[in-house]
Design a protein that fits this description.
mainly alpha; single chain; 12 helices
Length: 255
């Protein structure tokens, strides 16, 4: 456990020794704040119009009109940013030939994988945590369903962790950070649009593609529904990504 924490601390600090950490946080918070403000102002505009015609605020769903679109857009932004967060984690170690030193030290490859993953997950959690101000702002204007919002955040967190695990795997396959970033984004996009390929098919292949699609499992969380099937999917996705990363490093170690 000590080795995992040491690696995670080292890589987390490295994010802020380069522009990557500041870039992803600034871009993410800036874009999400703009989207949140746009959704909130639109909600306030519609609520004023609705009340002029004799309606009431109770009939306006602040969760459905503000937080659900924001959380959905948040997942789209992570589709782009996670590739930046993971592309250097192992690719840079291979390029600088420091991976050999790590693998010849009294360090198990699993500890290396978990430490690298934890460092990226900490940065991801920091980015996600910065948006918790949105539910606070919503509480000023209405009475949002906080349980539903927290369920949505849980879904986005699991989605992001899934992206990170496979981004780490792609980073372990190459020495070139740009190649790792491009391949990671391409893989994420493939898993994202898989349900579009399947279409409204009732065939076994269509149902399989719909289940494998990573975004389809997020919709229940955003609506406030925590389904065991969706949790198991994301946990399995994360575990499989870390397993592939471990196998890739073991293969590199024996070469």
């Amino acid at each position: 456990m000590r080795n995992i924490v040491a690696i995670a601390r080292k890589d987390f600090k490295t994010y802020f020794l380069t522009p990557i950490g500041y870039l992803v946080i600034t871009v993410f918070v800036g874009i999400m704040s703009w989207m949140f403000c746009s959704a909130l102002f639109e909600f306030l505009k519609r609520s004023q119009t609705f009340m002029q015609f004799g309606g009431g605020m109770a009939e306006m769903n602040i969760n459905a009109m503000v937080m659900q679109p924001v959380l959905g857009n948040m997942a789209v932004i992570f589709l782009f940013l996670v590739s930046l967060m993971t592309m250097r984690l192992i690719a840079e170690e291979r390029k600088m030939h420091t991976l050999e030193l790590l693998l010849t030290s009294p360090l198990h490859p699993a500890e290396l994988v978990l430490g690298k993953f934890l460092s990226a997950l900490l940065l991801f959690s920091m980015m996600l945590g910065a948006t918790f101000i949105y539910p606070v702002v919503l509480s000023i204007f209405g009475s949002p369903d906080l349980k539903q919002i927290l369920a949505g955040y849980l879904g986005v967190f699991l989605l992001g962790a899934s992206f990170l695990s496979f981004g780490l795997f792609i980073s372990a396959l190459t020495e070139n950070q740009i190649t790792a970033g491009a391949l990671t984004f391409g893989l994420f996009l493939f898993f994202w649009i898989m349900s579009w390929i399947a279409g409204p098919s009732d065939s076994i292949a269509g149902q399989f593609l719909s289940y494998v699609s990573i975004i389809d499992h997020l919709s229940n969380f955003i609506r406030g529904l925590i389904d065991t099937k969706d949790v198991i999917y994301y946990v399995s996705f994360i575990t499989f990504g870390l397993f592939l990363t471990h196998q890739s490093i073991e293969s590199y170690r024996w070469r």
